[in-house]
Amino acid sequence: MSSQEEALKSLLAALEVSPDNIPLRQHVASILFDLERYEEAEFHLTEALKFAPNHVDIKLELAETFFEQEKNSAALVILEELLEQDPPLAKAFLLHAYISFWNGETPQALESYQEAVRLDHGLRDVSFENQLAEKGAASGDPHGGRVPTEYLTEEQPIDQIERPSIKFQDVGGMDDLKEEINLKMIAPMQHPELYQAYGKSIGGGLLMYGPPGCGKTHLARATAGEVRAAFISVGINDILDMWIGNSEKNLHHIFQLARSQAPCVLFFDEVDALGASRTDMKQSGGRHLINQFLSELDGVKYSNEGVLILAATNTPWHMDPAFRRPGRFDRILFVPPPDEAARAAILHLMLKGKPTGKIDYSKLAKKTNGLSGADLKNLIDLTVETKLRESMKTGKPLPIEQADLLKVVSQVRSSTKEWFSTARNYALYSNEGGLYDDILTYLKIKK
Ligand code: ATP
User: What is the pTM (predicted TM-score) of this model?
Assistant: First the structure.
């Protein structure tokens, strides 16, 4: 017999003498619980409650005992009451999280767990967090079970302040976009008095949408280089945080950081993850974040003077229309795959400084129809690799020839096709106010 069991024996004898001794019963129940004799623990806790029906700790212990016996509904009945307690009971929230998770209600589990740990950091359960994260990822829920590596970080550390050296001249094609950015964002910063004279407000943001790899990020970075501004690139998933209120804090911190670095280009990638249509949002937390983003964009509390806000998305149709209101992302620009002239310019840029023979750029541009900037980069990288291998054999850097590039072209597939097949449907059937006319024009469906 273990020492615990021996102690139990004498405690039970003592209980025979004084059955209404509540602390004694609790102690007995806790030993039984540790010995995994849950049914007996349940009995003693139920007995104890007869003498002290409002004893919160005993109720919680009973709920835990139910949970261990998989009597989840019984546990939930008790928890319902315990979750309303004032002051709140952290352990009740934790147990609620476990049961919700067990019942397949991951968002609920997340919310309760979050509350439990907020109330008591010591309750963190890393293996449960991992389970939550796995479930969250599997469900595709952007908030899902994302669990931060650091609990309740006061401020997300941002070591993303760049000083890009590339400029517009390093971006092939995209002339309309460059002009738009110039007119809307760069010129107002350089000639504020002119804009004021015409009563034109300075600021707002520019949203770029289009298939992946077509230069949205590249252009944003070059915009910063063009005006010698700081560049801060933010993936929305970097700021999403499962803890209520933390995402908003992270977002505010990023805006403040950009303001402190002005002139600064603040670039939001995958902005759709944040601006998902508010009606789609199951959790009110998502709405708060959107509202926070909009108010930061509006610059009501803090001025966005000197901050150029650019954002990019591959799925504009998932964005909240509130983003399109004047003063916010009132310009929404389509970034298509590069046209022939742009492809020639991009290839030229990408081969600059590399050993080349005589290259016919316009012919190459013709042969690369439909490829994105990233696909063209892939083409060059693959060709360089082949050439390097050959050069290793000879020990001399062999120049890249037209024929080398043409040989590789057939291996490079356009990565934009899939995007267009989805975009086409949105443009045809959900084209409010001609929002996606540019896509239809690009696909030659509309003139
Ligand atoms: P995603 O939507 O996937 O984020 P994106 O549109 O932001 O893609 P980028 O990351 O800017 O695309 O482009 C991928 C790479 O392709 C860049 O790093 C750059 O090397 C090259 N590239 C794309 N477009 C151009 C361009 N117009 N001029 C020069 N390089 C380009």
Answer: 0.65
Distances (CA, A) of 255 to 140, 225, 246, 296, 431: 27, 19, 14, 7, 32
Tokens representing 291?
């509202």
pLDDT band at 136 (very low <50, low <70, confident <90, very high): low
Instruction: Please report, for the chain, how many H helices and E strands are present, in that order.
Output: 22, 6
32 C-alpha to center of ligand 1: Å? 63
Best residue among 217, 346, 351 to mutate for probing ligand 1's pocket (most ligand atoms within 8 Å of CB) is 217
- Checking if the pLDDT of 275 tops 80, the result is no
Bridge partners, 309 (sequence order): 205, 266
Cβ neighbours of residue 120 closer than 8 Å, sequence gap 6 or more: 90, 91
- The mean pLDDT of 396-421, rounded to a whole number, is 92
Which residue, by CA, sits nearest to atom 9 of ligand 1?
215
Of the pLDDT bands very low, low, confident and very high (cuts 50, 70, 90), residue 281 is: very low
Residue 223 Cα, ligand 1 centroid: separation in angstroms?
13
Give me the percent of the chain exceeding a pLDDT of 90: 40
The H or E element that residue 287 is part of is helix 284-298
Q: What's the CA gap between 247 and 261, in Å, rounded?
A: 21
Residue 411 has what DSSP assignment?
Answer: T
| Residues within 6 Å of ligand 1 by CB | 171-174, 212-218, 269, 312, 314, 338, 346, 349, 373-374, 377
Assess contact for 309 and 297: CB atoms under 8 A: yes
Task: Say how far apart CA 388 and CA 425 lie, in whole Å.
Answer: 43
pLDDT in tens, 3-48: 777 778 888 888 888 888 888 899 899 889 988 899 999 999 999 9
Question: In sequence order, which residues have a C-beta less than 8 Å from that of residue 276 and are 6 or more positions away?
Answer: 142, 286, 318, 319, 320
| Nearest CA owner, ligand 1 atom 5 | 213
What is the bridge-based pairing of β-strands 230-235 and 205-209? unpaired
